Structures are given as structure tokens and as C-alpha cells.
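Dear Dr. K.,

Following up on our conversation at the group meeting, I've run the structure prediction for Glycosyl transferase from Acidithiobacillus thiooxidans ATCC 19377. I'm pasting the input sequence below exactly as I used it, so you can double-check it against your construct before we proceed with anything downstream. Let me know if the numbering doesn't match what you have in your notebook.
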Amino acid sequence: MGFEEGLLGLAFLLALAALGYQLLAMWVLRVWQPVLTNTDATFLPHTIQDLPALSLLKPLHGDDGNLYACLRSFCLQDYPRYEMVCGVQDAADPAVAVVQRLQQEFPALPLRWILSDKLLGCNPKVNNLAGILAACNHDLLLISDADIVVGPQYLHHLLTPLMDSQTGVLTCLYRGLPDHHFSSRLLASQINSLFLPSVRVSAHLGPNIFCGGATMALQCSTLEAIGGLESLADQLADDYWLGARARQLGKATILSDYVVDTQVHEASFRTFYQHALRWSRTTRSVQPLGHFFSFFSYPLPLVAVLTPWMFWGAGYWGIIPLGMVLLLRLVYHRQIMHKLGATDSLGAALLADFLGLWIWFHALFARRVAWRGSQYAVTADGRLNGHDGVT
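The predicted C-alpha cells came back this morning:
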């Protein structure tokens, strides 16, 4: 076999693998039964008397206009004993006014905000959490990002696996809800059609290693056993390492079937690209081999890239894989929209696919990420190395 024939065979093999991934993702989604925020009252595993007290930690930074709605969903929990502690690192942060408004609206809820200038490392979220943690009163902790919306039974649903002694960290996936900007629809499509299914596929094939900031619930004793927040202070992927270090203690990272909502606000293509690149670069920092082979999770653009070579070497037979993966992608779009109750446009979803493959490639070489208005250098082992304040 000549060199050109070998390359042609490799192209067909990669296209076949991409088709196989698409079929696997479709099957995993077909058997998955997610609990969405608008359907979370259908199953309650515990009575009120069974539920332990819980501290809900909310690191805040600014207000994109939706912070009130996001935080309010956590104030409406059908849960008897929980406190909500919000953290800011600047007294002039507009998030403070939002929390104060909610304090007036929900006077019976133990809701307070903490101003802290603690500096454990380069990760601004971990620094913020350090101030919050010191003010928490309960041993059961739940950390959740500021842009998350949940249903009233959210806390209730999470308790069954969390009360298992073998559970290290309990986490949730999230559904992207975009605003009117097209860039927001692109990012939401990447979340719903690419990121979420890839995590479900990975969890189906082996022990779950995903741990995301949308929900991270754990015992205070577990956090102490991994070295506290100090052990995460310089990590870009602080959420991943929280789960990974708990697994080093022999405790599992549990992926709940509860799917929270995240409000996606990307006013420009630049902010979309920076956000998506940071996510991809974060994955590369913690799973370099897995990130490298994740191009298979972009079947349509991957096969489209391979098609000219396959057409040149095999004629019209080389177009067949593209037709097959395009047909599967159309069916898959309808499937994921139905499963998540989402309304992503097909055009945005297909464009997000192609941009996703390019961003994956860019992340192979990226050395800096944009986060919270600053640029951070990322070392080879995934640690943040200072910032220069430039967006």
C-alpha cells in the first residue's frame, strides 16, 4: 500500500470513528432521563424530616442583568434548613445591591453577603470562596456559580447520592439559555449539543470524572481532607481538581441527572470566543490526552474536513460519509432539543460545531485565557500564573 492510499484509509477510518461517536452520543441521550428545572417536582426522594442543614456558597462578581433572577431561584428552594452565603471582593460590586434586594424580599431566609480580600492564589473564584467558607455554619456545602438557575426542588433532588459515604463530590450538568445575541446562541449551542452530550458519553463509558462549577456539593470534612481551598488556589480548573482530589481519597464524583440552567450572555463574538477557548484550554490542562482525541466529538466538521481528500482518492464514494453524518446531525439536533426542552436554531448549532473544532485546535497551542476581565497565563500543568488586567 502506497503512502497516498494509507492516508486515504486513515481519512476513512477517522470518518468512521466520527460516525461511531455520533451514534453512541445519540444512544446515550436516548436512554438518559434528565430532571430539568421546569420538571423537578415530579420525584421527591426524601421527606422534609430527613433533610440535613446545608450551606449554599455563591461567589459573585458583577451583575450582567440576570443575577437577581438567578439568585432568586435559590431563595425559593423547598428545603427546610439552608443558608445562602454570597461573597464579593469589592464593596462597590453591583452584586451587593442584588443580594440586599433579596434580603428584603426573603427576610426569613438566612441570606447574607461577605466582603473579603482573602488571597490564597491566582484563581479569583477560589479567593472569593475562601471568604465565604469562613462564614458558613453547616457541614454540608454546596458551591454554585452565579449564573445558574434552578427549580424549587433542586436541593431536595441532590440529597440521595450526597448522603452516601462513598460520595466525594456531587455535580450537575447545565443547559444553556441564551439571550438575544447571536454569540450567546452560539455558546448555548456548544453547551447543549457538544459539551453536555460528551460528558454523558464519557460518564457512560467509565467512572465519571466531570466536576463542574454549576453544582459542587460535598461534606466540609471532604474539603478539609483534600487540603482545603488552598489546594485549588492556583488551578485554572478548580472544579475539576476538587472532584479529582476527592477521588484520590477513594470517594466518587457523582454526576446527577438534575440539569440546571445557565444564563448565557455573550454580547460579541470576541467574548464568545474567549469563553469557549477558556473552557477548551481548561479541559486540555486537566486531561491533555482526552482533549487531544476530543476532535471525534465534532463529527460533522471533522468529516467535512476529511471529505475533499476522500473525494479525491475515492470519487463520489468519498462523499457518502459526509451525507451520513449530516443526516445523523440533523436527527441528533432534534433529539437533543427535545431531551433538553431547548430551542437552539439549527443554523447556530451547525456553526457552533465548526467553530468548536477550530477552538479545540486553538486550545492545543493557547498559553493564555481571559477570565473576569483579565488575561491569565496558564502553565503546562494547568496553573494560573498572574494576570495583567487586559481583556
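Two things stood out to me. The chain has two domains: 3-31+298-360, 35-289. Residues 307 and 323 are 10 Å apart (CA to CA).

Best regards,
J.T.
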